[in-house]
# Entry
Amino acid sequence: MPRFSIIVPSHGVAGRLSQALDSVLAQSFGDLELIPVCDGPDAPAASVTAGYAERDSRVVPVHSPPSAGLSGARNTGVRAASGAYLLFLDGDDVLVPGALALLDARLTATGDVDVLYFEHERTPWWEGEPTNPAAPLLASAPPGPWAPEQAPGLTGVALPAWSAAYRRAFVADRRLVFPAGHFTDVGWGGLTTVAADRVATLRAVVVRHRLRRQGSRLNLPGPHQQDLLDQVELVLRRATGLPDDRARVLFEQVFGLVLRTAARPERMPSGHRAFFRRAGRLHRAHRPAGFRMPVGSVGVQHRLLAAGAYTAFRALRGVNRVAVGAAGRLPRPRMPLTRLRYALELRRPLDPNLAVYCAYWGRGYVCNPAAIHAVARALAPRIHSVFLVEAGQEHTLPKDVDHAVIGSRRYWQVLARAKYLINNANFAEGVVKRPGSVHLQTQHGTPLKKMGVDQSTYPVVAARSGSFTRLLGRVDRWDFNLSANRHSTQTWERAFPGSYQALEYGYPRNDVYYTASAHEVIRIRRRLGVPDGSTAVLYAPTHRDHHTGFEPGLDLEAFCEAAGEDVVVLLRAHYFYDRGCLRGGTGRVIDVTGHRSAEDVCLAADALVTDYSSIMFDYANLDRPIVIYADDWEVYRATRGVYFDLMAEPPGPVARTPEELARIFRDGSWRGAESKELRSAFRERFCQFDDGLAAERVVRRVLLGQPPEAIPAVIPLAERLPAPSATLVRS
# Structure
């Protein structure tokens, strides 16, 4: 029997789950079993936990459907547990180093107590000092094990379930389960308080609770706020017969929670009066004999609740809100003329048939926004689309695409009126998220390098990223965020914390990799100037934040000479340098950086050579050879930060020097069996949702508002047929 069973529900936190699991498995005290609870075998967290289970026999994943909620997940974990003590850890929290050793030592000293309460640290997600809210409560506890009557003020109601260890035999004997519904910690804490005979405390932090940027889900408005009263009633019924001192303390603590919720009517857009009346009935029915109302404002609130005086209670709690509202109505400084016009447009109703698109801050008709726009014209013809473009680039748009120049009067007008706003980067700082509008963030690549707030610990890139606070203000405008694979979904969750909904639909720009014909491949090659019969190698290095301009990193002419007489190179620099990098082609090196479509360039290439560019994830859809040229991997990894070790999981052969790169092409290993095997594993992980139907899914879900069950399912990878390469066409 292991000493500890650690149960970790994972719903909605797959992006941070690995940090929680790592914090457990890295403990110096190893007599444990780790039980991650996933939604199901195909859930985002399941792939994460499966890898841990393969590497460590102490990891035993179990499944609980999302409909069972947090309580169902924990109860499932409890049923699977075999340890002497149960610990609960939220999937986005961590155990501090040495935590289990401290718990074991304390339990050895106290003996088999039913419950061992310990401290926890609440860590701000971004800025601010950590707090230890349990410390004042535990400070009054007796030094050794004690009976609940000795410290009636210390109850589980005031502590989350993950701030204590519970003897499994005690939980089983008393048939304790987490009650269904929201606020399950309140019910569980109260039930264990009533049932426990022997308790102890550990005056040390065991769990580091990382506050979500979005705040607690329990604070969101909605009918789930009524569940608090269900938990309170359950606890008070079970507490019948407790000694008076314990009953009075428990009553006051649970109604402290009730009053805090009753004082926030905005959490219940409807049903607040019913909540108040039911709370009053519970107050009158379960008030212990000899209960004395608290002094001050809290005591007044107790009396008004007990009397059912709803109007008086609202009046008492409304004073601060009136003051805050008055401050918010103070006049603002006068805006410049264009922003004033924008403000006036914001007063007009939204146009339900207007969509605004933008790609790469106005660089043209490209990437995911362009692919969505093209499909929307066929599937949602009622919606009028306007593409935003920077001044001087109007000629790059197709002639039949309506557009607005960034900064113009019409630019602000359509941004103010459009119901749908679609971008692969972000809209301008001053753009307002209007109620009823729908913002879709399509992203523009699968992340290898650190993104968003994850960049903050890398000084070079952080200095170039601007204000992370402003970045997150832009994230708050997103309603939907597009993802091409589970890796991206989990990374965006950490890098761009927000309340948006992830759409695992694939990248629309990659649809063409499954729809293009052999004729189109040949036509693109000829348009780019690729000689017939040649092997076209696309060289696409990424941007270096520690460089001030474009540096190819490779002598391309020398590579062509060394790789073979039929090899030509298509040079595609990062989009930061999309005006071109070479002064025209030089025979076997063709600069395609300025070509508007990266997808065209990929279709034309027989193989890809890149360092750390996200183009590798898109190109992998074509199932054509990929070679990694990693001459400065250690420097890049240290200065930019990465999400996984590309050298350990490459999509093909890895070269560290120009000579190694040339040899890979000379001896044919670039397209050999090992290369294919590496590419197959890479495609399975990173081409999960790209199947040629991504744009259709987005249009149906976002623009047409169709329910998730009506969206076309993703075609299995083995059944997809990528566009043929020129080599295959010639064959």
The first helix runs from residue 14 to 25. Confidence is low (pLDDT under 50) at residues 319-335. The CA atoms of residues 18 and 48 lie 7 Å apart. The chain is about 40% helix and 15% strand.
